[in-house]
Specification:
Largest sheet: 2 strands, antiparallel
Order of helices and strands: HHHHEHEHHHHHHH
Structural class: mainly alpha
Helix content: 55-70%
Shape: elongated
Distance between the termini: 10 Å
Number of strands: 2
């Protein structure tokens, strides 16, 4: 067994005392923190753009919500005109939506006709009551349109003076963690790999990019796809309750961070399955026979990690089910390294 003897000699050369192990760990942590600081400094430079980008899914959802509100107001106005015998399009709903798609939000104000006539430089008719005696029934309904991009309801709010600054710092730290994560994982795994055999060490460098790829894939799925369905469900519930959403920037930031993090961690499922199979806790046969229970567990996890609307639950559950079977394939077809510490019951003589 030349490979085994070579690995054993290499391991003997790299043996370290407890204090030397602590020193290596200190170096790995120091390099990881240094990488994090460099990433955070870069994050401070682009923090404003990051905060603006993070708000984009919410702004799009708010714009869609208030377009729907404008369409309903336009429909009510067209129906009122139809009852008054005025000329209106045949398809009122299509016409109302077309008006809303122009990006104009209608607002209705009650105007004193006497003041309105004076503002227009016209004589006030005798039939118009003075402002002092005007009632709600005597006021004129004035319909005013505002460009949707200028609607202040599309902007997130802060309830404390320090909130925008803390959001900026938090976004910069998140950028630092994302940029430095490959180096941090590399430094930590490099420390762990020092105690592994050569054939075992190569799997560390194979699984590390797979783990990072799965994490970023899950986070990207949450940010660019799932948020749309989540916000659509939440705003629909606001509409049912008759409440206009006024999102708070700090709460939105926490929501943005938690959901992609949950998706990224859950997408590590194939590697977790492979690890549990390699250390002997589960076998491929167990994974295959318990796939129905696995789907049930995945559905429950998807329910807790999403706002429980059907769209976002499916967008998390379906990829996880596919990844479960990917994990089974990895356990079955990836080569296994032989354990150097096991002794054959009937070893063959070495020549």
């Amino acid at each position: 067994m030349p490979d085994a003897q070579q690995d054993q000699k290499l391991l003997e050369k790299t043996k370290m005392s407890f204090s030397e192990h602590l020193e290596e760990l200190r170096r790995a942590l120091f390099k990881s923190i240094a990488a994090l600081l460099v990433g955070a400094l870069f994050g401070l430079v682009i923090g404003g753009s990051v905060v603006d980008h993070i708000q984009s899914p919410l702004r799009e959802a708010l714009e869609k919500f208030y377009r729907g509100q404008a369409s309903k107001m336009n429909l009510a106005r067209l129906e009122e005109m139809d009852r008054e015998g005025l000329a209106v399009p045949e398809d009122l709903e299509t016409a109302a939506k077309a008006q809303a798609d122009e990006g104009l939000v209608p607002k209705v104000f009650l105007v004193d006709p006497q003041e309105w006539a004076r503002a227009l430089g016209q004589e006030v008719p005798d039939t118009v009551q003075p402002a002092s005696s005007a009632s709600r029934d005597n006021l004129v309904r004035l319909r005013v349109y505002q460009p949707l991009e200028d609607d202040p309801r599309l902007n997130l709010v802060s309830l404390a003076g320090h909130e925008p600054f803390m959001v900026y710092i938090k976004a910069s730290l998140v950028v630092g963690v994302i940029l430095a994560s490959p180096l941090i994982f590399f430094f930590i795994w490099d420390f762990v790999a020092a105690g592994l055999y050569g054939n075992e060490r190569k799997y560390v460098y194979v699984f590390l990019p797979i783990s990072l790829g799965l994490f970023f894939s899950g986070a990207a799925l949450a940010f660019y796809v799932v948020f749309e369905y989540v916000l659509e469900f939440l705003f629909w519930f606001n509409e049912v309750m008759g409440i206009n959403p006024t999102p708070r920037i700090s709460e939105w930031m926490s929501f943005v961070l938690m959901m992609p993090l949950g998706f990224g961690i859950s997408f590590q499922l194939p590697l977790v399955m492979l690890f549990l199979e390699r250390i002997g806790i589960f076998t491929v046969e167990v994974y295959m026979s318990k796939w129905r229970i696995a789907i049930l567990v995945i559905s429950v996890i998807s329910m807790f990690l999403t706002p429980s609307d059907p769209g976002s639950m499916l967008l998390m559950g379906v990829p996880l089910v596919l990844l479960y079977f990917v994990g089974i394939a990895m356990c079955r077809y990836m080569p296994k390294g032989k354990n150097r510490f096991t002794v054959d019951s009937d070893p063959a003589p070495q020549i």
